[in-house]
Amino acid sequence: MLNPNLGRVLSAVGACLLIVTLFVVWYDIDRTAAEGSTTATGWQAFPRLRIIVLVGAVLTFLTALPRQTRPVLVARTLLGLVVGGLIMRRIIDMPDLSYPQHPQIGIWIAFLGALLVALGGLVDTGRRVAQAYPGLGGGGT
């Protein structure tokens, strides 16, 4: 049986990753013709997305604290999926710059953090279903 706190822990770890990776390099910008190569963190690159990611991480912590009802678990799962989708958009569709840019490890870890937030909600939802309907697993008759 799954640990009752596993989903909360996964989501909290994901939220921590989201916050920390905002200050890690997300893009390497190749300006060799002009002034050399520079980098941009998630905080520097996206004025609106950084606020969404930060608020998403804080909301994740807030959803890990109260009683884990169905609406709380669904909200936490959706929160992770939305933030993950917004980050994935920035992996696929990078900002428009006149210089070539390359995604770096920070953006990938941020995406992983968002997936952990969603996974934490799913794990807790699955645990609640298994407790409410023990015969659904196929192990009991």
Task: Walk me through this protein's architecture.
- This protein has 141 residues and is mainly alpha-helical.
- It has five helices and three strands; from the N terminus they run H-E-E-H-H-H-E-H.
- It has helices spanning 6-21, 42-45, 47-64, 70-92, 105-132, and strands at residues 25-31, 36-41, 101-103.
- Strand 1 and strand 2 (36-41) form a beta hairpin.
- Helix 3 runs antiparallel to helix 4 (70-92) and helix 4 (70-92) runs antiparallel to helix 5 (105-132).
- The longest helix is centred in the last third of the chain and has 28 residues, at 105-132.
- The model has no long low-confidence stretch (mean pLDDT 84).
List keywords for this structure.
141 residues; mainly alpha; three-stranded antiparallel sheet; 5 helices; 63% helix
Can I get a quick summary?
With 141 residues, the chain is mainly α.
Query: What is the H/E string?
Result: HEEHHHEH
Molecular shape: elongated
How many β strands by DSSP? 3
Strand content: 5-15%
- Helix- and strand-based class? mainly alpha
Counting DSSP H or I runs of 4 or more residues, the number of helices is: 5
What does the radius of gyration come to? 18 Å
* Low-confidence regions: none
On the 0 to 100 scale, the average pLDDT is: 84
How would a textbook summarize the main sheet? 3 strands, antiparallel
Distance between the termini: 18 Å
Helix content: 55-70%
Spatial strand sequence of the major β-sheet = 2-1-3
